[in-house]
Specification:
heterodimer, A: 222 residues, alpha/beta, Rossmann fold, seven-stranded parallel sheet, globular, B: hypothetical protein PF0899 fold, three-stranded mixed sheet, 2 helices
Chain lengths: 222, 125
């Protein structure tokens, strides 16, 4: 005879358990952890390159660069002066998960680290479900994309704390309306902190750097 | 994943990894309860999860071919996004991902459902 068995278990409970472990470990070491997400080509790696160069010597930064197939992004970040850069090749999977991050963190010496950047796989759908133990998700959008992207990928914008609009040097060359993108994003998440910048022309980056430094100061409680 | 000989993007990959987790949990539970056969798996999917129910069904079917879980009925309860406006205190339902209170226009909402991605129950013998 058939019987009904109540389970009431989260499907991603194993990922959530590992993410909680990561969060605990990073919190003990007072490390700020940011999970960078966007479509492919919005400028996650470029932003991290600039950030590494600008804050080198001021903050100790570690990076985990997720990629579906290559180590190209990690190589770029090493060239930009990243001392602790680890590639994670997902082998076809479209997102990083907590198991991958746990494995990498076990090999890293985190004692001197102030801030950990996790560059997720370029994708606005899948990474939103996988908690990596980060403090916040930072979502990037560039001005060559549609300004309705927040409406198309609401989960990601809802779960992010920071929105970075990159490639502002190209504003006016397409029908991307920066006010519209902010309005769309805030419809989904009124609390979003927004930065407008151009990695290529190096404008608007100072506010981002200051925000990062403030996060580290707040975390260290000094 | 490959479908009709073409790489069809990663949406299915996402649902595929979700399907694999479901299979793992259900297999363990079935073994624990000495079930010879699982007939049904009931899921709750919140609108905020970004998980597409049809893609998940497809991924589940594809991953259980020629396994004891092949042909299992998947029941899905879609959970809407609901909560409360912290400004005016009214209960609200968020439609179309507009997280703005329909009564007072405030954006500070307390969301208390819609994030579910749960296995509610299984039926078997």
């Amino acid at each position: 005879m058939n019987k009904k068995i109540t389970i009431e278990k989260k499907v991603l409970s194993e990922n959530d358990r590992l993410a909680a472990g990561i969060r605990r470990k990073l919190s003990e070491k007072k490390i700020v952890a940011l999970n960078l997400v966007s479509s492919p080509g919005s400028g996650k790696t470029s932003l991290l390159e600039k950030t590494l160069k600008a804050l080198n010597g001021k903050l100790n930064m570690a990076l985990i660069a997720g990629d579906v197939q290559t180590e190209n992004d990690a190589d770029r970040l090493k060239k930009a002066g990243g001392k602790i850069v680890r590639p994670v090749i997902t082998g076809g999977a479209c997102h990083l998960d907590a198991k991958m991050i746990t494995r990498v963190l076990d090999e890293l010496d985190l004692d001197e680290v102030d801030i950990l950047f996790i560059e997720n796989v370029g994708n606005l759908v899948c990474p939103s479900s996988y908690d990596l133990g980060e403090d916040m998700k930072v979502v990037l959008i560039s001005t060559t994309e549609g300004d309705d992207k927040p409406l198309k990928y609401p989960s990601m914008f809802r779960r992010s704390s920071v929105l970075i609009v990159n490639k502002t040097d190209l504003l006016g060359l397409s029908n991307f309306d920066i006010e519209q993108v902010k309005k769309n994003a805030r419809t989904i998440n009124a609390e979003l902190i927004v930065f407008e910048l151009s990695c290529l022309k190096e404008t608007g980056l100072e506010a981002w750097y200051e925000w990062l430094k403030d996060r580290v100061t707040a975390k260290k409680g000094r | 994943m490959i479908k009709n000989g073409e790489y069809n993007g990663c949406v299915d990959m996402h649902e595929l990894s979700v399907a694999m987790e479901i299979i793992d949990i259900v297999e363990k539970e079935a073994a624990k309860r000495n079930l010879k056969r699982v007939e049904e798996i009931a899921l709750k999917i919140g609108a905020l999860t970004g998980v597409d129910p049809e893609a998940l069904r497809f991924a589940f079917e594809a991953s259980t071919l020629d396994t004891p879980l092949a042909g299992v009925k998947i029941s899905i309860e879609n959970i809407p996004v609901r909560g409360r406006c912290l400004s005016c205190g009214k209960a609200i339902e968020v439609k179309e991902f507009v997280f703005i209170c329909p009564y007072c226009g405030a954006g500070d909402l307390e969301i208390n459902q819609g994030e579910e991605l749960d296995i509610a129950y299984i039926v078997g013998q």
